[in-house]
Every structure is written in structure tokens, then in C-alpha cells.
Amino acid sequence: MSAFFDAWHYDGKSAVRRKVEVQIIGAQFFLLETERRHGPFAFSDIEYVTHKDDADVYGLKAADGWRLMLSGPVPTDLNAMLPARRNYGGWVDKLGFGKAAVAFTLASAAAIAVVLLSPQWLAPLIPSSVDEKLGDALVGDFGGRFCSTPAGDAALKKLVASLDANPDDLQVEVAKIDMVNAVALPGGNVILFDGLVKQARSPDEVAGVLAHEIGHVREKHVMQALLRQMGLAVVLGGIDGNSGALVNNMLSMSYSRESEAEADAHSMKALGGANISPIGTASFFDRLSEMDGSANSSTSDNGIAGYMSSHPLSRSRKDAFEKSIVKGKNYKPALTPAEWTELKTMCTQDRNAKSGFGFDFN
Amino acid sequence: MNDDLSQRHSAFRFHGSWLEFARIAFPNLLLSIVTLGIYRFWATTREREYLWSKTDFIDERLEWTGKGMELFVGFIMAFLLIGLPLIVIQLISQGLIFRGEAILAAAMTLMMFLLLFYLTGVAYFRALRYRLSRTYWRGIRGGSDDPGFQYGLAYMWKSVVGWLPIFLGVPWSMISLWNAMSFGPHRFSASAKWKPLMKRYLLFYLVPFLVFIGAVVFGISMAASGGTPDTLGSTGMAAGAIFAIVAVLSFYLFLPLAALAYYSKYFRLAVGGLRLHNLEFDFRARAPDWILFFLANMAIVICTLGIGYIFMPYRNWKFFVDHMEAYGEINIDDLTQSETVVAKHGEGLLDAFDVGAI
Ligand SMILES: [Zn+2]
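Above: inputs. Below: predicted complex with zinc ion.
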């Protein structure tokens, strides 16, 4: 069996262009020039390279630059021996464009869903030793900024013990940083900034914020957010910088709202259990949002933006705390006046603590 | 068999049409979206296949033989070798700041910056090497056996030592990387003269000063004419406002113009200094061509609400090929296959740094 067909050929060794005839003999073929015969070549070694205008370009395995260019109608017997053309690339060509687009959409949606949902049940599986090590590595002694006085420490300890059943695996500290902020970090670390303690008008206000941060710890929000961020970074890594970051922020924002609501719920429950009135927390939120609204009357509190950026203060949050007041319940102050004064002046009294600078971390 | 290029109008010709390109670019966009961007490596490959196949050099089309998978693997490698360590270093230095070790954190950040600087140079080199090794003409490809590590160092010191950082040092090092490249058996040589570039370069740096001097002169003349702007009343205020607008405009208008004027000269000199065996090259676009080109690009992107962005590879390539010129002779029999190694992975580093080689 033999067929002839006109084609162009480069042998890959020099740039000379050769007009050849393809002679098919079974699963092999020769390329015939006027005085030379190239080959035999096996059809199984032929690869599709590209399409060049009106011609399809084929290469030969392990022969760099070897080219066979066929243009015009290719005889069916030759066509049957040649590899399929490549258009979009492997999988898409196999499935077809439409099916591939649908399949990719589903796979992408599934990947995002896994990344967003799995941290909720993955976070509790992370051993607490890992969590603690991470917290130690991150926080350490906080650059010597933690304040400590015997009476202040005792007041803080009492406050934590009233809000949580297992206060031993929490590390709650007040840091000498003049910002209205509080953070929950890995390893059960909760840091209240001195700016927030000083700003508060009653121990009940501090108790609400503290219980909220303890809520983040107990609900494993820190580890969840960490896992989610890592997952999103991998899944969205393929998208170019800006739009990827935008999608990432939007997705993690919606989740942080959810965590904030959970932490608030935890806080209200803890306040109720400790017999502390939630009205303090509500009025604290109220004052903060007022300060935010009148930004130009900045009352030297450079740190309000800090708490606001990590804790969007919506009216509904304040309302929820107000609604959780149980009428006729006999609320007690979170701390005695003496204890409250000790806590509030702890950082002023402690001269060894280094004072912080206004770096921003949420 | 010789081809005498001087008898032809232009050795490079582009035959593409944007309608054909659209049929590649739109499906690419869709597939890139539904794959969360992963398809973009294959998208780039398809676009290059098209652009190369529509580009004539003398009497034969170019061929792009790169694969999407190569770019993808390159990206993954860059992520594992550079992206992950960078994230870890960043976490550690944040922890150090937390613990009050600001100096140590700063030192680490500086190290990270230097490493990135070095790798940027290597990335430029590797991207050019990859592109040449995947470009075929008459069955012959280009390439380089140099891994580019030394070039990374050269890129660093040339950028730093040229006391005007980045801009004047970069052209030197950018073009010198061609010296390590070859096509077929022939080596490229780059020997551009940079003195003619100085004037435009200074112009680029002078614009802010000129604006500043203008402001000073304006202030003095106001004072001389009998008062500060606020004693002159509303006309003085209006004049001041107009001047402020002009100053801002000139900053945002003249600075890019000066940069384009500089870049067009740079490109002309760089390509003009390039040789391959008996071939010499020339780039004919002058500053007004570049300005029109960029204005048109901006208009396209803005008028299509950003969708036109997907045509930028087409526009860039067309602009490049349309203005490329080559002179000299090619002995086809002498043009034998390149013996350089073919790297298996693509432009990962470059992709990670988001920079483009010339
Ligand atoms: Zn919170």
C-alpha cells in the first residue's frame, strides 16, 4: 500500500526547506525528494506541533526541529495515520469546549467550597500543642510590653475566671499600647490593649470585649481563619495579583462577619453566666461608633480605627447586646471599684513594661 | 542558497487579524475564569502560537512550540522555591516585630529584598532563554546553555552601581543578556551605545524639578505683583487653582511622556545594537509612534470597560513586529540546529515576579 502527497519538510539539522512527497508504507512513511529519500519514519512517532496559516505542522519525537507541513486537503488514508490536532489543549480538546467549561466551573466551585468550609471541622483537629507553639512563636513576651502588678493581675484573673470555665488554658494580658483594640491569637492568647482598658468607663465594658475575644479562642476562629487564608492563597494563587486578592478579601470578610457574630453570642452567654450586665458592652460599642462618625473631633485616641477595622461596629451588634439584658435580673459589677482601679492603672503603675508603638495588626 | 534582505521591504511581517485573535482570546478568558486562572498558562501558549504563526521572517512563518504545561510547572516551581519561603520569612519577621526584635526583622526583610532582586535578574534571563528555545524558524531554534545565575549577579550590581538606580543600570544589563543567547549555531551579540540615551534620561528626571521651579517662579511673581494669593482675592485664588491643576496635569502628563520618549530611544538603541552572525536589526518606532500606541491601548481598554485588555498581547506583538527590521544575509546552509539544552519548564520565575522581558 503506498500513497503520494506533496508536502514541505525541514529535517531539523539545517534550515533548508525541502519539497517532498509522502510515501506511505503501512505504519511507516518515507519523504521523497528529487534525489534523496528520507526515512523511514514511524507514524507513531509523529506529533502535532502547530497550525501555521493554511498548513498543519507535524514534528517527530526526539528529532528537534524535524517538520512536516501539510496544506490543502489531506488524503483520508494519510489523515487517518496522523495525530489529532490540538486546539485548546489536552483536556479541553478531549471533552469539547462547552463540557470542559462546565466541568472546570464545577471543579472550581468545589475547590472553593472545600477551602471555605473545611476549616470549621479541620481547626479542632489541629493538636493544641501546635496551636500553643504557634502562639508562643508569635507572641512570646510581646517585646516586654505586657503590664503586670500583683493587684492588677489578680483583678484580671478574677475577670477571666468569671467569664470562662477553663481559665487555665487562656493567656490574657494587658499590653502597654495606646490603641483601642483587643486581639485573639493562636494558643489561647488574648491581648487587651491598654488604650481600650483606659477608654472603658466600667469593668463591665472590658468584660464584654474580653468575653468576645475569649469567644474567638473557644470557637477556634483564629486557626480557622489561618487555614482558610492558606487555602484561599493556594486556590486563588492562579489568578493574577489584584483580582485574586480582591476575591480573597471578599470571601474571608464574609467569614469574619460570621465569626464576629459567633464571638458576640459567646460573649453575651458568658456575661449572662457571670451575672454581668451587657449594657456596658452596648454603650462601649455606641461610644466607639460615635467617635468613628465624628472623625474630625479626634480625641487623641489614635487607635479607634484599630478596633473598628477588625470589628466592624454595626447597629445590630449593639442592639443584640441591649436585647440580651434580662429584666429584673440582679446584675453585679464585673469588678469591685478597687479592683477596677487597679486594672485600669496597671500599665501606669508598671514602669518596667515597655510602651508600644502604633503598629497595626488585627 | 542565500537570501539578500536588502532587496526586501521588511524582513518581518505580521499577517494576523484581531478578529481571528478574538476567537482565541475570548474562549481563553472564559476558560481562565472558570479554572480560577489556572488555564492562563495554556491561554498564553495558544495566543503565542497564533501570533508566531502569523509572523513572517523573510519567507517562512515563525513557530511557537512552548506548552501550557511548561509554564504551569514553571509557576508551581517558582511558588515552591520562592513563594513559600517568602511567606515563611514574612511570618517569621512579623513574629520578630511582635517580640520587639525590629532590627532583626529589618535585616531579614532586607535579605528578602536582595534575594528577590537577584532572582528578578535570573528570571529575565530565563524567560528570554525559554522564549528563544521555543521559537522555531525553518526548523531551527534558539537557546542558551547559560543558566543565568551569573546574569542575576550582573543585573544586581549594574542596577545598584549605576548610581541612578534602576533605570539607567537596567538597560545595560537588560541588553547584555542577549550576549548569552544564540539562534541555531550563531550567537547574538549586543553592543548598544548608551550615551545618546542620557539626554532623554535626564529629561525624565527633570520634569518634577521643572514643575517645582515653575511653582517657585509663580510664587515670586505673585509676591512681586503686590501680595500673596489670598490678598489678591478671587482672581488670585482662581489663578492659583489653575496653576495647581496645570502643575498636577503636567506631572501626570509630562512624566509618562518623558518616560515614553526615553523608552523609545532605549528600545531603538537596544535593538539597533543587536547582531546575529551577519544579521543586523533595527527598530523603527520613534517616540510619537510609542505615544500613539499607548494612547490607543488606553482608549481600547477604557472604551471596552477593560475587556479590551485581552487584546494587548496582540497589539504589543503587532507593534513590535511592524517596526522590526533586519539587514544582512542569512546563509541557509550554515543555519544548523542549535545545540543548546532545552529547559523543560517555562517562565515560572518571571511569571511570579510579574515582569516582562523585551
Ligand atoms: Zn472579634
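The first strand of chain A starts at residue 4 and ends at 10.
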